[in-house]
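Sample log: PCIF1 WW domain-containing protein.
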Amino acid sequence: MCKPNKKQFLYRYSQFYPKEDFCHYNMFNHYFFAGEAASRVCEEFLQEDRGGPVALVADPPFGGLVEALASSFQKLVAMWSPGGGAGSSTSKELPILWIFPYFF
């Protein structure tokens, strides 16, 4: 997820963005390296434009566990959900672009 020139979830960007605009995040176990403060930054980012265009773009490494990623996606969708997660009456969905480097 990113908003051009503002928030990034790639660690190398921590050199350029302050803690208030950046989250170092492990998507395999939904872990924010800076703890609750980073989780709040993420939630504020996801809810920033209420109804505005947001998409989750994920390009995980080859061989990553699908179940772990899907669980994190669900948690991020719940953070984004305008109605506050599960049981929400909203019909909006968070678009997810999952680059799936798995070969069968």
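Observation: Confidence is low (pLDDT under 50) at residues 4-9, 85-89.
Observation: Residues 11-81+94-98 form one domain.
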